Amino acid sequence: MMKTANRSRRKTSLVQSMAYTAVAGLLSLIVIFPLFWVIATSLKDRADIIRNPLGLPVVYQWSNYVDAWREGNFGVYFVNSILVVIPTAAGVVCLSLLAAYAFAMFRFRGKNILFTFFLIGMTVPLGILVIPIFYQMVSLKLVNNLWALILPQTAVGLPFAILLLRGFISELPKEILDAGRIDGCSNWGILRHIVMPLSRPALLSVMIFNIVWVWNQFLLPVVLIQKASARTLPQGLSVFMGRYGADFGLLMAGATISFIPVVIVYIIFQRQFIKGIAAGALSGV
Amino acid sequence: MADAKQLAGERPMLAFTAKLAWQKNVSPYFFIVPALLVYVAFFVFPLVKLVELSLYKWDGILPRKFNGLRHYQRLLVDDRFWEALSHNFSWMIAAIIIPVILGLMLAILLSRSSMFGSIFFRTIFFMPQVFSSVTVALIWQWIYNPSYGAINVGLRAIGLDYLAQGWLGDSDLVLPALFIAWSWVHYGFTMIIFIAAIDAVDEALFDAAKVDGANLMAQFRHILLPSIRGALTTIILVTAISSFQVFDMVYVLTRGGPGDASMVVPVYMLESAFTLRKVGYGATVAIAMGVVIVGFSVLFLVLRGVYKDTD
Predict the structure, then answer these.
(1) Contact A262/B132, CB-based, under 8 Å?
(2) How many other CB atoms sit within 10 Å of the CB of residue B229?
(3) Which of A149, B50, B96, B211 lies at a 20 to 30 A Cα distance from B105?
């Protein structure tokens, strides 16, 4: 998807190219400056913030990070977020692959009805379901349990994943699939040894989109998790914000702790990220 | 498409191949059932339950009372709901204009100009997209801080003290201020989709236009814009659907305040159902919002031709 920007080598002067680069450089400050400033603030003490709000720290207060990590319980929140993200993404990928395979490869009674039934899920956002989900989890005794986040997000993630994977699988070359069948592969074997390896790019997009979406999900935990020890990272961060509202050094250390790991992972896997988010965001959820 | 059952049926059913034949005949339903179970239990069931809840008067604890359609009648005359809904619509309209134009301009700059380091700048511009909205809210709360925030400190530094104010505390400014924070993330999405669409345009079209002496504006109007029309439709609809559901930013930064100046429907829904303990009414608010979103989503699915390759 990401090709090099200029496919044709247009004859433009060096000056012009530098001017365009300068424009982009200036615009990128809109992203870079707030982040830089958040990190600068996170390394200041109170007096330094008041005296010199915009500048670099006079004395670097690394202790803000130690305090934020301890006071904010970020360790617990990180673990919880990971414990929600992994089963949800794995669940969506596995279940949607199976269903998409059937929708792409077989003809059977009720196929269109079933497929449309799944598509309904793409039109209804998770947000409007939080009230019934809350009472469902009350009766399942799952409030304050991470499964209360995993199960609904898996269900809501399925429709788009099925749509995307079905499209991908039905475009796989028929000859390879037929060859597999002639070699005596069962349906299961064809899925396992032919379809799955060939679908890796689409599976990766589905996975990454779900990871980002679930990692950042906020509305569901706000409703379903009330116990401190079960909070996910965004929710924990918002509680931290409420509690230390005036201590900006500490707050910005918390903000930095929350985005640095994501930024590092993003920079390493940015192609997959961009592809996954672009593909997934097209679902409208 | 080769039919598995048919193929299996053409083979001799010898005893030792019986197991194999069964495997070949694994019903397609077998592959769909796991997804279907999860989907029905945790999506369809709550959806049905939502409609049911909206028909009852319930505080969440005591036995509920059937209420018919009275919640819906009340919704029609509930000024707080209509005000919140109008905020969602304003937000949505701003969202399909500002981040879309910004994203398109950046995409053209990064994709069509002769600049250096365009991949590097893509990485930078897209970055806020991966942040959680709570992180973004926290960053912008600090930027908007009345005493030490970057905006007010900056305004004072250049002698515009009279413009410095509590951005999130002013009922006229709070929604635009929240919207700017939200846009800081969302132009990245529109930019990436536009870049993909622009990169897919046949370069020969531009070359031909240049030979014909078309200037940059003419190239934009007659070649670029028509070529990315599909992407534009997609982006506008996706942005409309996602921006209409705005919740996180508002909930974290203002909870709808001051007063109801930044109240949006999802916050009002939670307030009704959980703070005021009117569960049935909260469900009714959710349904009202759902109807709008489903309308846009169906339009989106139809325009994207989802059904085109179903047999």
Answers:
(1) yes
(2) 10
(3) B211
HSE-CB at B61 with a 13 A cutoff on CA atoms is 3
Which pLDDT band holds residue A36 (cuts at 50, 70, 90)?
A: very high
For chain A, the structural domain boundaries read 15-61, 75-281
| Alpha carbon distance A12, B115 (integer Å) | 10
pLDDT of residue A283: 55
Do the Cβ atoms of B246 and B88 come closer than 8 Å? yes
CA dist., res. B287 & res. A208, Å (int): 30
Write down the CATH number for the domain with range A75-281: 1.10.3720.10
Q: Name the token pair of B143.
A: 């930027």
Query: Shortest CB distance from A28 goes to which of B124, B140, B184?
Result: B124
**For residue B221, what pLDDT is reported?**
86
CB contact under 8 A, B266 and A219: yes
Looking at this predicted complex, what is its ipTM?
Answer: 0.88
Question: How far B217 CA sits from the closest chain A CA (Å)?
Answer: 17
SS3 B158: coil
Q: At what angle do helices B79-112 and B174-199 cross, to 10 degrees?
A: 40
Range B78-306: architecture per CATH: Orthogonal Bundle (1.10)
Cis before B258? omega within 30: yes
Place of tokens 């990245």: B188
Low pLDDT (below 50) residues in chain B: 1-23, 307-311
Closest chain B residue by Cα to residue A159: B39
pLDDT at A178: 81
Q: Residue A187 and residue A102: Cα distance in Å, rounded?
A: 9
Q: CA distances (Å), B211 to each of B81, B109, B112, B215, B219, in order?
A: 57, 22, 17, 10, 11
Determine whether the interchain pair A102/B29 forms a contact, defined as Cβ–Cβ distance below 8 Å. yes
Q: Which tokens in the block code for residue A130?
A: 């939080």
Q: Which two tokens stand for residue B167?
A: 């951005």
Q: What is the mean pLDDT of residues A163-184?
A: 85
